[in-house]
């Protein structure tokens, strides 16, 4: 992977939302540190999964990648160009190549537009890449690609089920032949039996169109299934980053271990043989995160050092020479391998 | 605490029994048949998980038991709900009121909308004791603190006067649990109690619920769509599809060898944490509309095993036996081809 150029390069990304007080004379009294120094790369044709609990900043990362929010600091480079510094014309060209699929298929489609208009709308905005001649024909093809009947082109969103609506959202995302699709919890609103259909569709499309996905979700099993690499976020920071095997089979960060052990397993026998780490307390507020390591307030390994030094996301020194999956970036002073999934 | 004596447990009579329940909703497209002949029982100290996707009728059944079904548009068209052998649907409103809250309590999915935002949690918890037990405000508040301690809310004494929005999601769900426990009910119905919570918090809340259920020897009906959550705590499972129970089984049995193609499909379609598969198995198609449930077996349009008989005859929920005809115990499947599904 090292010889390949990343298609998307995120470096030291920070997003703070100011907290203000007063109506006429606004005073900043603090900031919600939604994303705080996050770096990762995305390569062509791969899926990078980002997992974390609510409030960890994963959706803010998605918005920043789409340039829907301006970063407080840090860079997002698409093929070498920093997207937050582009002119609006250049940005438009970049946006064509980065599309998004949203979580809620009920609110992300305009109820007054027909499916044909929804999927065809990207062509209105980007006429330079729109198919010459018959756009409706292209829309019909897209419907067919995502497994919907092309005859449905004149129907309205309410005439479809949740899973079908998510397919419409995916067709819209595909319309401009993008290279990257950012998926923010794309299946969490769907029923179990329909989730599998949509996941399979997304994997098929990735092969067909060599798409790169940033797949944001809270469901660790689904993320493992679809991702090549996985980043675990906690309170605005990446706690651990690695290939799916490194993260799931050789987790070294205590938060990843706790998260993995808490996943309900659909098999009572696995569940009984498995050790469970139950974390105390709740996630602290991102407006006032703990000093040092942000996980220390819930961590069973925390020592004085954790309150003072912020652990950096890097391969822990003592694992640097190890073979196998242990040697991957982990932001913990006391990183240690612990297999919580198997056993 | 002076409570009227609970009726002595009659041997052989289940704590709570739903018998052949039918519920319809009046809609513009005609009658939506939400529940079509559901029967199940819960005993003291037992956890029954009712598993199903949206529209399967799992929540409507629970709402009917609690008597909080919106009528109209809802309508109970048949069946019985027996609490210690007595049919609650035939009782007067007054008699039913005494059972509800006192003997059967419910925990809802969304604690933020289930709690009153303008009253402190202490007041809302205390209300149970003031209304049902006639306690004074002071006594009720002391009880509220005690309960908050019981569900492990840190610094309960200081937090008793806080309002719901000042608590995190997990803490709010604990308050809901405390409220359901307040009057020491015999049965608790928990409708997706952890769906709105994060995984690490979900584990805390499920553990608490399971522990309290053991301590108080309550019957627990756990309604969920999550096969993982069920595996953690349930004793037995009832799988619902289109308003009917399609399979019942003790929890270990169900996961090891499902006896209905729907259950089998569900189990195969969820990605697993401990290994990375290739393509996921996907059940084709969609659940049926409740105004137009297919003839015969409701699962027939999506079933890989469907034969002619499945389109004409509705399969009854029949006992599932071992290959040699011996009993398995507690297992039933509503499939014409359960033998092929479980043994072949």
How are strands sequenced across the largest beta sheet of chain B? 6-7-8-3-9-10-12-11
How many helices of chain B? The count is 13
What share of the residues of chain B does DSSP label as strand, in percent?
15-25%
Radius of gyration of chain A: 21 Å
* Major β-sheet profile of chain A: 6 strands, mixed
How does this structure look, described?
- Chain A is an alpha/beta fold and 343 residues long.
- Chain A has helices at residues 58-65, 88-97, 115-125, 135-145, 162-174, 192-209, 220-226, 244-249, 254-262, 268-273, 304-308, and strands at residues 8-21, 27-42, 47-51, 73-78, 81-82, 98-101, 180-184, 212-217, 229-234, 237-243.
- In chain A, helix 6 links the parallel strand 7 and strand 8.
- In chain A, helix 3 (115-125) runs parallel beside helix 5 (162-174), helix 4 packs across helix 5 and helix 5 packs parallel to helix 6 (192-209).
- Chain A is globular and about 65 Å long.
- The two termini of chain A are 31 Å apart.
- The model of chain A has no long low-confidence stretch (mean pLDDT 88).
- Chain B has 344 residues and is α/β, with parallel strands linked by helices.
- Chain B has two domains: 16-234, Rossmann fold (3-Layer(aba) Sandwich), CATH 3.40.50.300; 240-270 and 280-343, no CATH class.
- Chain B contains 13 helices and twelve strands.
- Chain B has helices at 58-66, 93-99, 111-114, 121-133, 137-150, 156-159, 169-181, 199-216, 227-233, 251-256, 261-269, 308-312, 338-343, and strands at residues 16-27, 30-42, 47-51, 74-83, 86-87, 104-107, 187-191, 219-224, 236-241, 244-250, 318-321, 327-333.
- In chain B, strands 6-7-8-3-9-10-12-11 form an eight-stranded mixed β-sheet, with helices on both faces. Chain B has a four-stranded antiparallel β-sheet with strand order 2-1-4-5.
- In chain B, helix 4 (121-133) packs across helix 5 (137-150), helix 5 (137-150) crosses helix 7 and helix 7 runs parallel beside helix 8.
- The longest helix of chain B is centred in the middle third of the chain and has 18 residues, at 199-216.
- The chains are: A alpha/beta (343), B alpha/beta (344).
- Chains A and B meet through helix 6, helix 7, helix 8, helix 9 and helix 10 of A and helix 7, helix 8, helix 9, helix 10 and helix 11 of B.
């Amino acid at each position: 992977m090292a010889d390949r150029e990343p298609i998307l390069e995120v470096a030291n990304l920070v997003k703070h939302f100011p907290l203000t007080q007063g109506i006429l004379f606004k005073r900043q009294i603090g900031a919600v540190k939604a994303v705080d120094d996050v770096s990762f790369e995305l390569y062509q044709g791969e899926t990078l999964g980002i997992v974390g609990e609510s409030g960890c900043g994963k959706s803010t990362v998605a918005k920043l990648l789409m340039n829907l929010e301006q970063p407080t600091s840090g860079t997002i480079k698409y093929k070498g160009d920093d997207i937050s510094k582009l002119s609006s014309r250049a940005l438009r060209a970049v946006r064509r190549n980065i599309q998004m699929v949203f979580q809620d298929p009920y609110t992300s489609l305009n109820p007054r537009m027909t499916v044909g208009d929804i999927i065809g709308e990207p062509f209105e905005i980007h006429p330079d890449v729109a198919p010459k001649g018959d756009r409706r024909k292209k829309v019909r093809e897209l419907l067919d690609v995502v497994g919907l009947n092309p005859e449905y082109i004149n129907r309205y969103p309410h005439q479809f089920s949740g899973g079908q609506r998510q397919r419409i959202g995916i067709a819209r995302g595909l319309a401009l032949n993008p290279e990257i699709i950012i998926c923010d919890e794309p299946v969490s609103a769907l029923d179990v039996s329909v989730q599998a259909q949509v996941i399979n569709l997304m994997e098929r499309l990735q092969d067909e169109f060599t798409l790169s996905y940033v797949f944001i979700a809270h469901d660790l099993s689904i993320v493992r299934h679809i991702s090549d690499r996985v980043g675990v976020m906690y309170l605005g920071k990446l706690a651990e980053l690695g290939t799916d095997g490194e993260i799931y089979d050789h987790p070294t960060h205590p938060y990843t271990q706790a998260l993995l052990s808490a996943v309900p397993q659909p098999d009572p026998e696995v569940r009984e043989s498995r050790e469970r780490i139950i974390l105390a307390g709740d996630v602290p507020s991102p407006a006032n995160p703990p000093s040092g390591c942000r996980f220390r307030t819930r961590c069973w390994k925390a020592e004085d050092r954790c309150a003072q030094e912020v652990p950096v996301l890097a391969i822990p020194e003592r694992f640097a020479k190890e073979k196998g999956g242990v040697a991957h970036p982990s932001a913990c002073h006391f990183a240690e391998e612990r297999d919580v999934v198997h056993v | 605490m002076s409570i009227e004596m609970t009726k002595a447990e009659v041997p052989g009579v289940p704590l709570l029994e739903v018998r052949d329940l039918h519920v319809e909703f009046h809609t513009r497209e005609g009658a939506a048949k939400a529940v079509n002949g559901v029967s199940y029982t819960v005993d003291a100290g037992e956890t029954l998980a009712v598993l199903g996707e949206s529209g399967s009728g799992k929540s409507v059944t629970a709402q009917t038991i609690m008597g909080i079904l919106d009528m109209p548009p809802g309508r109970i068209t048949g069946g019985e709900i027996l609490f210690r052998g007595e049919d609650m649907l035939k009782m007067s409103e007054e008699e039913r009121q005494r059972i509800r809250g006192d003997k059967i309590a419910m925990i809802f999915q969304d604690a933020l909308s289930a709690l009153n935002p303008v009253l402190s949690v202490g007041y809302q918890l205390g209300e149970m004791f003031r209304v049902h037990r006639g306690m004074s405000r002071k006594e009720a508040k002391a009880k509220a603190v005690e309960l908050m301690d019981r569900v492990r809310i840190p610094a309960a004494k200081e937090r008793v006067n806080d309002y719901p929005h000042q608590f995190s999601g997990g803490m709010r769900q604990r308050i809901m649990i405390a409220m359901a426990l307040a009057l020491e009910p015999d049965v608790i119905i928990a409708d997706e109690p952890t769906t709105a919570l994060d995984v690490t918090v979900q584990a805390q809340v499920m553990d608490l619920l399971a522990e309290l259920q053991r301590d108080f020897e309550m019957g627990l009906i756990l309604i969920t769509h999550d096969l993982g959550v069920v595996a953690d705590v349930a004793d037995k499972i009832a799988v619902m599809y289109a308003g009917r129970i399609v399979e019942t089984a003790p929890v270990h049995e169900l996961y090891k060898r499902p006896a209905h193609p729907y259950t089998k499909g569900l189990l195969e379609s969820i990605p697993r944490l401990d290994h990375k598969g290739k393509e996921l198995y996907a059940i084709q198609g969609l659940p049926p509309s409740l105004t137009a449930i297919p003839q015969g077996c409701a699962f027939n349009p999506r079933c890989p095993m469907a034969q002619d008989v499945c389109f004409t005859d509705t399969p009854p929920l029949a006992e599932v036996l071992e290959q040699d005809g011996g009993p398995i115990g507690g297992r039933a499947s509503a499939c014409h081809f359960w033998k092929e599904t479980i043994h072949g």
